[in-house]
């Protein structure tokens, strides 16, 4: 997308605004499938939690993707978007057994990461195929909040609990059709990932009816110019060779599965916000925008960086600004960032806003959630309307009180 396209969309749909470039999603999907073209059977399951708009799900369905879901609601969204149940894998953590049962009854692939749940499910539903999520105890990923393979992680069944796991499978007679792992996000060291893969291969040897091995995802994307990223082509070459060799050892071809979220949609996303005020203090120049961590919490939550451009003045002289929001708390998107000179009314563009941005938004301070637009073949298509006051009060049940503070009615 070009700057003029983003400016046009901000004028047409207002701000703040999320914009997603369909062509970038498609190119990332193609890049991933090409990297693993030497594998006979490849399955890409898009991680719905990254960006769950139904139009985005439908786009990925047309590209051939399946879905990785972590809640019954995400399963339902996937089915609503037209995905077949067998194209959806459900990997919850810490949910009720009733939710897992509900997902199983919908016919999706169940992925279990807890020994007690595995035993309960196997005893009650031994005929339903189950994937097992293991924790390889390999530390991969960036920020501690998004690294999930370490020894103290709440995710997965420890590889050191394999004897217990095998005893449950034998006692229940359940069918294990897949093995899964996920080590974390923002993976840079391919060798660490390949080391974890060897643990997955060793685990897989204990099961005779496997159909697939799921290696999760966590591939890092560039957040700024010349930033480092996961070398997906090198990983594809090395892991494909090792995976094919394992299939020969195992005795039949298995499916290689991944669950990319950020890799597919992060770079496709742009967040547009209008500058309300430019405020000079004794040491800082603040650019205050018409948004806050209610719309984009990642910088405040775990220090993520989003490149910020002044698309109203892209060739202006650069100055240092702290870009802040309108929430009544510390609400800082960027500190002392070099940005082309900003004036009130300018539109700032936050890049890499496709993953874990709108999906983590809220109505904090009773602010409305922004609209979402899909840029497809040179035109912007509204895929979520901007919220209004009716949306804020839609599910509230209002009670009235008399002067003695007695509840007198409920509407």
From TrEMBL:
GO function term, MF aspect, one: diaminopimelate decarboxylase activity
Active site: 328 (proton donor)
Modification N6-(pyridoxal phosphate)lysine, positions: 49
Binding site for substrate: 298, 302, 329, 356
Catalytic activities: meso-2,6-diaminopimelate + H(+) = L-lysine + CO2
InterPro entries associated with the record: Ala_racemase/Decarboxylase_C, DAP_deCOOHase_LysA, De-COase2_C, De-COase2_N, De-COase2_pyr-phos_BS, Orn/DAP/Arg_de-COase, PLP-binding_barrel
GO biological process: lysine biosynthetic process via diaminopimelate
Pathway the protein contributes to: Amino-acid biosynthesis; L-lysine biosynthesis via DAP pathway; L-lysine from DL-2,6-diaminopimelate: step 1/1
SUPFAM superfamilies listed in its UniProt record: Alanine racemase C-terminal domain-like, PLP-binding barrel
Protein's UniProt keywords contain Nucleus: no
Cofactor(s) of this protein: pyridoxal 5'-phosphate
Alphabetical list of NCBIfam families matching this protein: lysA (TIGR01048)
Name under which the protein is recorded: Diaminopimelate decarboxylase
Organism: Flavobacterium microcysteis
Gene that produces this protein: lysA
């Amino acid at each position: 997308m070009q700057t003029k396209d983003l400016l046009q969309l901000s004028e047409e749909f207002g701000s703040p605004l999320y914009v997603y470039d369909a062509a970038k999603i498609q190119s990332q999907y193609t890049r991933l499938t090409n990297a693993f073209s030497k594998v006979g059977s490849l399955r890409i399951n898009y991680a719905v939690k990254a960006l769950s708009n139904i139009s985005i799900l439908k786009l990925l369905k047309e590209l051939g993707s399946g879905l990785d879901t972590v809640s019954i609601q995400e399963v339902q969204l996937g089915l609503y978007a037209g995905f077949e149940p067998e194209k959806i894998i459900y990997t919850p953590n810490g949910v009720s057994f009733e939710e897992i049962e509900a997902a199983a009854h919908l016919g999706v692939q169940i992925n279990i990461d807890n020994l007690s749940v595995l035993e309960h499910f196997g005893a009650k539903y031994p005929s339903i195929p189950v994937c097992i999520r293991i924790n390889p105890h390999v530390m991969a990923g960036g920020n501690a909040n998004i690294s999930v393979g370490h020894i103290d992680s709440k995710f997965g069944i420890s590889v050191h609990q394999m004897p217990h796991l095998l005893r449950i499978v034998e006692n229940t007679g359940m069918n294990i059709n897949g093995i899964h792992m996920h080590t974390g996000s923002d993976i840079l060291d391919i060798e660490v990932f390949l080391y974890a893969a060897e643990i997955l291969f060793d685990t897989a040897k204990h099961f005779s009816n496997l159909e697939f091995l799921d290696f999760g995802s966590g591939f890092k994307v560039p957040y700024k110019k010349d930033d480092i990223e996961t070398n997906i082509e090198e990983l594809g070459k090395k892991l494909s060779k090792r995976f094919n060799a394992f299939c020969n050892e195992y005795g039949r071809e298995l499916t290689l599965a991944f669950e990319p979220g950020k890799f597919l949609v992060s770079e496709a996303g742009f967040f547009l916000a209008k500058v309300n005020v430019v405020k000079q203090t004794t040491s800082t120049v603040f650019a205050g925008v018409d948004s806050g961590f209610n719309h984009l919490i990642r910088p405040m939550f775990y220090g993520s960086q989003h490149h910020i451009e002044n698309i109203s003045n892209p060739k202006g002289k650069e100055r240092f600004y702290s870009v802040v929001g309108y929430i009544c708390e510390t609400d800082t998107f960027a500190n002392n960032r070099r940005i082309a000179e900003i004036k009130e009314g300018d539109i700032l563009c936050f890049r890499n806003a496709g993953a874990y941005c709108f999906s983590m938004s809220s109505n904090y301070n009773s602010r409305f959630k922004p609209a979402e637009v899909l840029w497809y073949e040179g035109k912007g298509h509204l895929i979520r309307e901007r919220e209004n006051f009716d949306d804020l009060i839609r599910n509230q049940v209002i009670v009235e009180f008399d002067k003695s503070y007695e509840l007198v009615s409920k509407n």
